[in-house]
């Protein structure tokens, strides 16, 4: 059954696509995402906290800020295919070298670390959930939002997706490596509002990487709503 939700606000970030001009060039086919390990600037995050954030958490915090700032609290569904993969690699390397695990490092490597950091920055107490479903993570996260909205669970909901560049050491086990690093945040509603973009989530195609569904949606939004 086709399920329609409305995008009231959106934010996107990827290495090389950091301005409106970059996004327009990407849609025209004149610019591509750089498959490098990079992070957005976070001038709105206190320096002490900013220094502790991992790459994927910085990406999530960045895009979430622009769909949350100045708006009422909303529950978040966070989705990622690879999660805190770089943090987990660092922990594994440290474990091999020292046979110990840092509690602080571990706490920032779990599935909900990026969305937890995002809610702390925005002082959002509405709650969150995390969806990790491999290449289907993006679509399943959106479905979680749509299901919640269809049952009247809050007037709005935020969908947050982020994947960083998987470390090259994992290339032999990541088919199609390198993956596409990017982050997207959508503020969603079940009710149409002025300026909102209607989205039929059943139109989103299956892709090799979850991030490719974010790119498909980005192009749809920018092409249909220039």
Considering the chains and any ligands shown, give keywords for the structure.
226 residues, alpha/beta, 6 strands
Describe the structure in your own words.
With 226 residues, the chain is of the alpha/beta class. It has a single domain (4-224), classed as 3-Layer(aba) Sandwich (Peroxisomal Thiolase, Chain A, domain 1). The chain contains eight helices and six strands, in the order βαααβαααβαβββα. It has helices at residues 20-28, 47-52, 55-68, 85-98, 103-107, 113-122, 137-150, 210-224, and strands spanning 4-13, 75-79, 128-131, 156-163, 182-189, 197-200. It has a six-stranded mixed beta sheet, sandwiched between helices. The longest helix has 15 residues, at 210-224.
How many domain regions?
Answer: 1
Question: What structural category do the secondary elements indicate?
Answer: alpha/beta
- At the fourth level of CATH, the homologous superfamily is Thiolase/Chalcone synthase
Task: Just give the CATH class.
Answer: Alpha Beta
Percentage of residues assigned to helices: 25-40%
Mean pLDDT: 89
Order of helices and strands: EHHHEHHHEHEEEH
CATH architecture: 3-Layer(aba) Sandwich
CATH topology: Peroxisomal Thiolase, Chain A, domain 1
Q: Treating each run of at least 4 consecutive H or I residues as one helix, how many helices?
A: 8
Q: What is the radius of gyration computed over CA atoms, rounded to a whole number of angstroms?
A: 17 Å
Q: Which of globular, elongated, flat, extended, rod-shaped describes the shape?
A: globular
- Please report the total strand number as a whole number: 6
Per DSSP, what share of the residues sits in E-state strands of 2 or more residues? 15-25%
- The strands making up the biggest β-sheet line up spatially as 3-2-4-5-1-6
């Amino acid at each position: 059954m086709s399920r329609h939700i409305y995008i009231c606000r959106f934010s996107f970030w990827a290495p090389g696509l950091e301005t409106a001009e970059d996004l327009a060039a990407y849609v025209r086919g004149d610019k591509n995402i750089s498959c490098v390990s990079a992070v957005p600037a976070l001038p709105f995050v206190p320096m002490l906290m900013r220094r502790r954030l991992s790459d994927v958490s910085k990406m999530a915090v960045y895009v979430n800020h622009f769909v949350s700032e100045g708006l009422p609290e909303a529950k978040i569904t966070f989705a990622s295919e690879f999660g805190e993969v770089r943090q987990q690699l660092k922990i594994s390397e440290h474990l091999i070298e020292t046979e110990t695990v840092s509690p602080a490092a571990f706490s920032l490597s779990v599935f909900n670390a990026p969305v937890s950091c995002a809610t702390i920055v925005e002082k959002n107490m509405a709650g969150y959930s995390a969806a990790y479903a491999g290449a289907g993570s993006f679509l399943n996260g959106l479905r979680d939002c749509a299901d919640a909205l269809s049952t009247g669970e809050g007037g709005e909901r935020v969908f947050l997706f982020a994947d960083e560049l998987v470390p090259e050491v994992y290339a032999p086990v990541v088919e199609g490596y390198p993956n596409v690093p990017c982050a997207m945040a959508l503020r969603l509603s079940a009710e149409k509002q002025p300026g909102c973009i209607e989205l039929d989530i059943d139109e989103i195609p299956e892709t090799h990487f979850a991030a490719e569904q974010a790119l498909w949606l980005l192009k749809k939004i920018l092409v249909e709503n220039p």
